[in-house]
TrEMBL record:
Family: Belongs to the YciI family.
Lineage per the UniProt record: Bacteria, Bacillati, Actinomycetota, Actinomycetes, Kitasatosporales
UniProt cross-references to InterPro entries, sorted A to Z: Dimeric_a/b-barrel, Sec-metab_biosynth-assoc, YCII
Name used for this protein in its record: YCII-related domain-containing protein
Pfam families found in the cross-reference section: YCII
Species this chain originates from: Wenjunlia vitaminophila
Gene3D superfamilies (alphabetical): Dimeric alpha+beta barrel (3.30.70.1060)
Domain YCII-related span(s) in chain numbering: 1-87
């Protein structure tokens, strides 16, 4: 099963995140073989972290909750809240397989919070700009709750346009970059 976990930073938690960086990476290293995508969301300055996205394959919802809530930054209070949803890897690849590479262009996390009527299940036509794409689902995988995408786009409005606007209660667009240990 695949899960999307989005930890949103608590205001003023940047010093704590810096202090726990090695612990965070060590924790994530334990999941390296099942990681589909990862990386920080950033403020408009393109430098200040606002959250942390991880899409990971795990055995079940209980393992996903353990992944999300045992994370060192969460345990230390660096995060304001956590969005944890079952997810389906519609592209069938990881971010490391993204044809656009790790750098270049603007990258975004787009979260469409569904209104109830299923939307955007089919992969959009411009797959070469998609890093990850798929529906957000209930724990048992039977109820559509929205759609999440990581993508390269010219600007936030172009990123938002990947989803059908009138089918979502809200569409969030966050600056995002590839994450993980520096090589």
């Amino acid at each position: 099963m695949e899960f999307l976990c989005y930890h949103r930073d608590r205001p003023g938690s940047l010093p704590l995140r810096h202090e726990l960086l090695e612990e965070h990476w060590s924790y994530m290293d334990r999941y390296a073989k099942t990681m589909i995508a990862r990386g920080p969301t950033l403020a408009d300055d393109g430098d200040t972290p606002t959250g942390s996205v991880h899409i990971v394959g795990l055995p079940d919802p209980a393992a996903a909750r353990a992944f999300a809530f045992d994370e060192p930054n969460y345990q230390a209070g660096a995060y304001r809240d956590v969005l944890l949803r079952r997810w389906h890897n519609t592209l069938g690849r990881t971010m490391w397989d993204f044809p656009g590479g790790r750098t270049g262009g603007n990258r975004y996390l787009v979260l469409g919070l569904g209104l109830g009527q299923i939307a955007d299940l089919a992969v959009p036509p411009n797959q070469d700009e998609l890093v990850a794409y798929g529906p957000l689902l209930s724990d048992d995988g039977t109820t559509w709750l929205g759609t999440a995408a990581l993508l390269r786009a010219p600007d936030p409005d172009a990123a938002r346009a990947i989803l059908t606007p009138d089918r979502y209660a809200d569409i969030e667009v966050h600056n995002w970059q590839f994450g993980g240990r520096p090589s």
